[in-house]
Amino acid sequence: MDTSKSHEIIVNETAPLLPAKGSKKPKTPLPKLQIGILITLQLSEPIASTSIFPYINQLIRELGITEGNDAAVGYYAGIIESLFFAAQALTVLRWSRLSDRIGRKPVLVMGLSGACISILCFGLSTTFWSLVISRCMCGFLNGNVGVMKTMMGELTDSTNMAQAFALIPIIWSLGGFLGPLMGGTLARPQDHWPALFSGPFWRNYPYFLPCAVAAFLLALALVMMTLFLEETLSTNRRPKFTSTKVGVPSSPDRESLAQQSMANISLRSLLTPSVVIPIANFAMLAFLDVSFRVLLPLFFSTPTYLGGLGFDPTAIGKWMALYGIADGIFQAFFFARIVNWIGPKRLFCISVSCYAPLMAMFPIMSWILRARGEVDHAITFALLCHLVMLVIWHTTYGTIFLFITASAPTNNVLGAINGLGQTSAAMARAVGPAMATSLFAASKQHNLLGGNAVFVILIVLAGGLRWLASQLPDEVQDRDE
């Protein structure tokens, strides 16, 4: 036997299969076209969901549900939002599991179609129960968020995952800018542009226009997704996207068998500490964040004599749009750099700590308004300080998505893991709006802690999230190893 060949075989067999722990892998380029299509699809979701925020409280007043009691508006606004998430919690895991079997694209088609139909029904609603039914329909048919995160995880690896997942909060922030701006501007068009919208239809359905525009964007996203987005589930991909590893034989039958066995794995076997801890953090984060999101427009629209700012829908839309665009710009330019600089766990802990001052700013603004008697530059400065804390708080989403995605033992159960996370978040979001707005209304009606009991309770709960954050692993696990 040739000694040189023998030596080469020994060297090859004894060479380490994994790179040294200290060595850094070269960064894999992002698949820009597919990522671009995916984030465009994600953009349509927050636009549609946040476009109702500027006018939902006024709509409830006009329906006469509260019989003129402005303090009770929060109860009904919270119920509408909570029922959406309650409906989503019942079905989102089933949609995610279904996407592990039939593919990601068919589930996205059904979800986008359902969202499009439900937002049109919302715009045509003239009673409280029709509002409830349309929002529940949207929740039942909407499994898109978890599936899109799964696709994002399948399109990336450990070297570019932070860069890709940084785009998710950017897109939601951009949607949080465009949605309220669109909703606040287009609501009641007969008042703003009477020459164009003077017919009886617009008098009977004054909030249909923003819903119709949101439905059009969803339909446009559906067409683009159908034509251009590639399937990421391995057994449903086109052959050119099937990947193999050097030295490991691969065939469609073998890959299909592995896919089916992993897709049918029991959920209980996935509930390991490495999976449960990130999901628990995500659920608590979702609860606190959705509570803030429903309290913000409610605080803006509440009359000044009840401790709010008394803004109209147009002003609410503009301020929420500013919050969204500033948030998106910060996430776009700084999130990935900060994660690389201080690490995901430290960033998450710092961001969670910003929730307490974020809540404390609400009673501070009420006190400033009472002291000065009007909304002036002092309130504007306080709102800008509020914005800074919100931007830091929202880096929590990008970081927790990294931990959840990395917790999946294989890509074949990534849909199930994201489904579990999204189900937990949906359950938290189902409780959050009703609880937060009801506490807000009760605080104002009964003057609990000077009308600020809701903010004190949420600050205490934020302390629980800070403890949960300390239980996360120090580093994001490399799924490629």
Describe this structure as you would to a colleague:
With 481 residues, the chain is mostly helical. Helices cover 73% and strands 0% of the residues. Helix 17 (355-372) packs antiparallel against helix 18. The longest helix has 33 residues, at 414-446. It is globular.
Outline:
With 481 residues, this protein is an all-alpha fold. It has 21 helices and no strands.
Q: Helix count?
A: 21
Shape label: globular
The averaged pLDDT comes out at 79
How much of the residues is beta strand, in percent?
Answer: under 5%
Q: Class by helix and strand content?
A: mainly alpha
- Radius of gyration, taken over Cα atoms and rounded to an integer in Å: 24 Å
- How many β-strands, per DSSP? 0
Distance, first to last CA: 35 Å
Biggest sheet descriptor? none
Please give the share of residues in helix.
over 70%
Q: What is the succession of H and E elements?
A: HHHHHHHHHHHHHHHHHHHHH
Would you identify the regions where 5 or more consecutive residues have pLDDT less than 50? Answer: 3-22, 238-263
